[in-house]
Amino acid sequence: MTLLRSLLLSLALVFSTGTIAVSQDYNKGLEAYNNGNYATALKEWRPFAEQGYAFAQFNLGLMSYHGEGVQQDYQEAAKWYRLAAEQGYAQAQYNLGVMYANGEGVPEDYQEAVKWYRLAAEQGDARAQHNLGVMYDNGYGVPEDYQESVKWYRLAAEQGDASAQFNLGLMYYNGYGVPKDNQEAVKWFRLAAEQGEALAQHNLGWMYNNGEGVPQDSQEAVKWYRLAAEQGDDRAQTNLGIMYDNGKGVPQDYVIAHMWYNVGSANGNELGGSNRDRLAEKMSSADISKAQSMARQCMASNYEDCGGE
User: Is 38 contained in some domain?
Assistant: First the structure.
């Protein structure tokens, strides 16, 4: 199992302001934004941003980043985020950290990313706590420190951040920064999986399939593999193929197994490709053709129509 290293910028508009007078005009911009009238939103919010209101600076940063009402401009986004971040605005600090981590609008600089993540994390921003955990986990901008990583993952995970729950599960599974504990790993994988985190769904399926931290249960493994497979996780797609190939937790079905192997392979899973080719030697030409057709339909439907399952 590999650690999640995603550092994502998420859209999060602000719904509160400092004064009633500001909020009345702010809400005009918010209503316009929600109606897709970005030019009007920009017109309403820019004066507040220029007067130093952090919430408006943050929103202008978001609009510049996404090209809403203005030409997309990462440098302009970073400018507005910085103005808000320097006033202690946690969401802007987090987004500025992401821009430094990804080299968007500013030179890539992990130490600067850590600086801004930390400021937001210390204010309780769960996404910043998660990303600060990632930086310590991988030694990006700071010395690698699994215990420090666990600390930040836990803070975010306890706030319900699914990525942090997944990564905290990995730390327990691997014994990084904490004693190895498969039951704790399962606990955190499950919390993330129930929020729809595909990587956690796959790993929870793995734990059930192998009886690690939970009693071995092939049917439960299939359930979680399927949920991840239907989100496009290539490992889950391949493992679901293995379950059908061997009749574990489901009736043995070479056609469906071939389909999932083929889909996993199409998404870059080498084991899926080799298993598909091995299984094809046991199948008739008609069954192979049927499985290939099902794989095409599965992918074309974005995994909503995968053999009538």
Answer: yes
